[in-house]
């Protein structure tokens, strides 16, 4: 295998209206387990609070929010301030910036304890995010299915997010497509997802 193969961007998974590239596993075997363990141990994981159908809900999955500056995270009911980068996140940020060729200034982390914890249909189109900015999604731990659904045609694109993998969404993706992480009874082990994002400065 050519040493530079891993830096050749893979093809666009979407047939129209956006750009999604799955790079597969972007780190060495020992590195994947090491990142997973460090994130489990070093991140101050906390349950998320959001408003669903007008009622406050505490999610079973846990989250954390980091950034270059104390950006406000408005996804949740209680506004959280981004924490300053720690070494494990700075290393992952450098890796995904190198692979995707895009800069990021913040990161949302999600910890799913088992396949029963999931994330419903949504687009990451908050006004605080740079318009058409790239979002780099790193997955560690249990492999899980991930689905894109076109807002008008309802076309679906499904893929598996593997341990140590990188997925990059950019261009008009968030305007035209939603995505979700479906629940599954067949996964009992935890998974960590990191989405590196570009907030408007
Ligand atoms: O866990 C995932 O793979 C997706 C997370 C996600 O869509 C998000 O944090 O916005
Ligand atoms: Fe998302």
Task: List the keywords.
4-stranded antiparallel beta sheet, 201 residues, 7-stranded antiparallel beta sheet, alpha+beta, binds 2-oxoglutaric acid, 3 helices, binds fe (ii) ion, Jelly Rolls, single chain
Q: How much strand?
A: 35-45%
* CATH fourth-tier homologous superfamily: Alpha-ketoglutarate-dependent dioxygenase AlkB-like
Order of helices and strands: EHEEEEHEEEEEEHEE
Report the count of strand segments: 13
Largest sheet: 7 strands, antiparallel
In helices, the fraction of residues equals: 10-25%
CATH C-level name: Mainly Beta
Q: Please give the count of helices.
A: 3
Radius of gyration: 16 Å
Which blocks of ≥5 consecutive residues have pLDDT under 50?
none
Enumerate the distinct ligands: 2-oxoglutaric acid, fe (ii) ion
Reading side by side through the largest sheet, how are the strands ordered?
1-11-8-13-6-3-2
Organism: Marinobacter nauticus (strain ATCC 700491 / DSM 11845 / VT8)
GO biological process, one term: DNA alkylation repair
Cofactor: Fe(2+)
Domain Fe2OG dioxygenase: 103-200
Sequence-ordered SSE layout with sheet pairings:
Blueprint: E1 19-25, H1 29-42, E2 46-52, E3 55-67, E4 72-73, E5 80-81, H2 87-100, E6 106-112, E7 119-122, E8 135-141, E9 144-150, E10 156-161, E11 165-170, H3 173-176, E12 177-181, E13 191-197
Antiparallel strand pairs: 1-11, 2-3, 3-6, 4-5, 6-13, 7-12, 8-11, 8-13, 9-10, 9-12
The structure holds 2-oxoglutaric acid and fe (ii) ion.
Residues 108, 110, 119, 124, 137, 146, 161, 179, 181, 193, 195 line the site of 2-oxoglutaric acid (AKG).
EC number: 1.14.11.-
GO molecular function, one term: hydrolase activity
Domain Fe2OG dioxygenase: 103-200
